[in-house]
Amino acid sequence: MRALWLFPLAVLLLTACEREKREFRPPQMSGETDEEITLSSISAGSSPPTQRTSGKGQEYEDNAYHISQGQKLYHWFNCNGCHANGGGDSGPALMDDRWIYGGSIENIVQTIREGRPNGMPSFRGKIPDDQIWEIAAYVRSMGRYTPKTASPGRRDAMSPGPAEQRRPPAEMHQGGMIPPSAQMPQ
Amino acid sequence: MSDLAAGKDELRDTDLSDAELSARLAKTWGTARGIIGALSTVDHKIIGRRYIFTAIFFLFLGGLAAIVMRLQLARPENQLIGPDLYNQIFTMHGTTMMFLFGVPIGEAFAVYLVPLMVGTRNIAFPRLNAYSYYVYLAGGLMVWFAFMLNTGPDAGWFSYVPLSGPENAPGKRVDFWAQMITFTEVSGLAVAVQVIVTVFKQRAPGMTLDRIPLFVWAELINAFIIVFSLPAVVTASAMLMMDRLVGTHFFNPAEGGDALLYQHLFWFFGHPEVYIIFIPATGWVSAIVVTFSRRQAFGYLPLVLSMISVGFLSFGLWVHHMFTTGLPQLGASFFTASSMLIAIPNGIQIFCWIATLWDGRPVFRTPLLFVIGFFFIFVLGGLSGIMLASVPLDTQVHDTYFVVAHFHYVLIGGNVFPLLGAVYYWFPKFTGRMMSERLGKWNFWLAFVGFNLAFFPMHITGLMGMPRRVYTYQPEMGWSTYNLLSTIGALVLFVSFVVFLYNMIASARRGPLAGDNPWDAGTLEWATASPPPPQNFNRIPFVINREPLWAEREKLPVATGLAVEKRELVVTTISEARADLRESSPEPSIWPLLAAIATTIAFVGSIFTPWAVVWGGLLVAFTLVGWFWPKNNKEDEA
Fold first, then answer.
1. Hey, how many other C-beta atoms are within 10 angstroms of the C-beta on B3?
2. Which residues of B touch A160 (CB under 8 A)?
3. CB–CB of B171 and A20 under 8 A?
4. pLDDT digits (tens, 9 = 90+) for B98-128
């Protein structure tokens, strides 16, 4: 009988829930994370490219709260102005499986922070670092690269398609296509 | 039992001596030994005891959550728990108190006491009764386990959209809340149906409508309120789940949905819910007042009619929770009027009880003390209720601590104080032992002082503008002293519950033996042993008076002729309670437990995937087939 009490305790310890963690007051002056991330999966020599990540990516991608905050920020910072609801407009689509500059969350953070050629502006100094991570986590959820249980449900707005959590999980293709903005001769 | 040859004469209770009859009936109606026996029992007393125990367990959990909140609010800018945990804790407190304690506790007492008070041997649909308990337990444990895994609901006990909608409540927290509602619904509706059928069809012969004990009337009316109100919240929570999980747009204005619809559906349940919590308490109070004032209830008819009219009116004033949502003026006026109207039947009840005490020779034991405390606190809560019913005042104090003070006065005053009285009153019947009077007095005075110290200052903080559901406040607001007083009061109230818990445990072990009727009460549950034997009564009593034990002090008249070797009870007509049929009552079965497990799997699964409704439904259907599989025994032929 006594072992029965241990059971819920064991469950608690094993599944301390990362998905639901909420940080309402992130450190106000958090510095930028210093990711060393490549755009290519190939490297000179036999070893794969040298990369160093802070591990913050996993934390943000698996967390329902961060992704949901990213969903709000995505609209508040007018990401939808170019990328629409992820389907792409003047900017490339975010919900498909093609990633021009790499599809890992660290790549996306770099893309938002540094900007990319052909139209993607740099947001360094404009968006706090942890919010960049949140937006990147949301972008990842658009193609359902995030866990189903952490991905957002529908927004309280007109719905262009099924919510992120209703989409099938995607496979990733690195560097697949030329962005629409680069296709047209300037 | 099934091997009784059809032609052979059955053994009837007229053929046996008292002692042998009692032994044989106890065997027929008893619960098998062992874990399987305990899990398949259909004895309403065993299940009722579990129900009461579980509901009081959740009362303590909810109370602990409240203490944590009060400690956090004890001083301004406190860092004890952060905003996230605070949100979860106040939601768990409200949810637990309303759904896992408030609704079930009234039903729990009904499950135990109604069959005894109407003089029958088991509740109607006893297997459903077992099922409903397991479902209730599973729902409560589910939401508390979710809370311990940092997935506790955090959008308030009412979970308004859009705050609880898919956009603003990410993760699975609110889904656990919504599914907990479904669990409570299923179990609550099941018990309500059982109580209605038991009261209508299983009353002892001669217990006409005007001889039904007031407690049973209260539980009957309560059951009807449950049947009519709970479907509204099932609808609301199911729509919320679908919005969150499947992406429907019930509450999404951008796609033609309506966020206010949720509030209407919720409060169409939520206001009757307040009376679901209060009406059983009027039953407890009536029973205690009558017993301890040593006379029949003054104004039995007005009491019953006022309970019924409270039941009706409770469905007509839900909108007073929504005065600040921008109602048409006519609507606001109508619901102001109806909200004030309900004070009339409640006033009639209070005056009837006071008149009963006035005219009787009251004996001030602990149960009656709690009833006196109830008068004081509940009337005060009713007065602030009248204030809140008027739109201009409500608009000012909406979502402030004034409202918190008001509803704790009516809910704790209207339910918890009578409950404590009821536990002291019926504890001898449940366990066969008396609770300590000395500790009972301590319990009462600590609870009374602690309660008023905790909640009276909240009127003032509310009028000073302190909003509800904030996890902290600034020292400049000037709310610090009152909050500190509230915290101290809450701690005193908590100590009173520790005394209560200790009194229960100690008395159950070493309390003086009670005997059948320690309070010299008049209703039928005191006509049998304490605790009652499995069959409740050896011979079904025949009722000729509203207080049968006072009318027939020597020996109750009985109705005879029931079979002894199988579970048989008397079915009577609805109004006159003339003996109508002999009807068999179901045997114990493990299937209700299995069905409850299947239901739990289906419900918890549907938090994560809508397909759980399909395969979970099949699972439940399978267990129901097992449950209702014909076994060719007497029971099925009847």
1. 5
2. none
3. yes
4. 999 999 999 999 999 999 999 999 999 999 9
